[in-house]
Amino acid sequence: MRHAVITGANKGIGLEICRQLTSNGVMVVLTARDEKRGLEAVAKFHESGLSNAGFHQLDVMDANSIVSLDKFIVTNYGKLDILVNNAGVSGATNIGNVAELLYKISSYNGTKAVTEALLPCLLLSNSGRIVMCQQVSESLRLDEIVNEFLKDVKEEKLDDKGWPTHRYAYTISKATLNVYARIVAKSYPTLLINCVSPSFVKTDMTGNNGLFIAEVSAQGPVMLALLPEGGPSGLFFQRMEASIF
After folding, report:
1. Which residues of 2-41 are buried (b: 16+ CB within 10 A; e: fewer)?
2. N or C: which end of the chain has fewer CB within 10 A?
3. Is 105 within 8 Å of 146 (Cβ atoms)?
């Protein structure tokens, strides 16, 4: 049986990714910051007959939480076959609220930390897969760009420097992760690592104003999680179609 970790999975598209993977016979570890909500989500899977789901608390911006998850995987499964990085936060709208901005930008660092902590377990699998649920963009100086962006926010120079001004913290965070995924894919050719935009999903984060329901939007991430040997790596997918990274 394959084993998967899904971050940010107690509701919305993350929860649906879990449901579809368990339906495909994958043992899923659903993770979420809120332990109560995560356990409730797993309980509903069990009630519906999907017993191959478990829970572990995870805050991607808490180093101790990440270490705890890694130890759990090593102790209980010995390896990891699938990592779906879905956890994220919406974009800051108040430029003056630097604390809020730093929190949202750090989701890039958090997801990167989770990925790097679980890489040894993924490399023990003969079918390792990493899926980044993201938006498309590209750059090469990841940490430098994040730092430059934060500096320009504090100095109120977003417009002057041409940064995106709509949900900007979320956009920059996801953009850097897209490129990070491509770098990791080149560094670890035995793993299949891809990014996917599930499109505008009807979830709490979008105020249920999206174009697609979670059941439809989860199909892309699930497809990439279950790619056969020899499948694509280092690509960006718009839902289920490969696009320009």
Report:
1. bbbbbbbbbbbbbbbbbbbbbeeebbbbbbbbeeeebbeb
2. N
3. yes
Q: Which pLDDT tens digit goes with each residue over 61-107?
A: 899 999 999 999 999 999 999 999 998 644 444 444 554 555 455 56
Three-class secondary structure of residue 56 per DSSP: strand
Nearest to 122 by CA among 63, 74, 62: 74
On whether the pTM is more than 0.85, the answer is no
- Give counts: helices (H), strands (E), the chain: 9, 8
* Among candidate residues 97, 153, 131, 117, the one with its CA nearest the CA of residue 234: 131
How many whole angstroms separate alpha carbon 34 and alpha carbon 14?
A: 14
Residue 106 φ/ψ, nearest 5 degrees: -70, -10
Residue with tokens 């299949």, as numbered in its chain: 192
CA distance 78 to 81: 10
CA distance 8 to 174: 15
Q: Environment class of residue 80 by beta-carbon count within 10 Å: exposed (0-12), middle (13-18) or buried (19+)?
A: buried
* Beta partners for residue 31, in sequence order: 56
Share of the chain above pLDDT 90, in %: 52
In terms of Cβ atoms closer than 10 Å to its own Cβ (0-12, 13-18, 19+), residue 58 is buried
Q: Is 168 a catalytic residue?
A: no
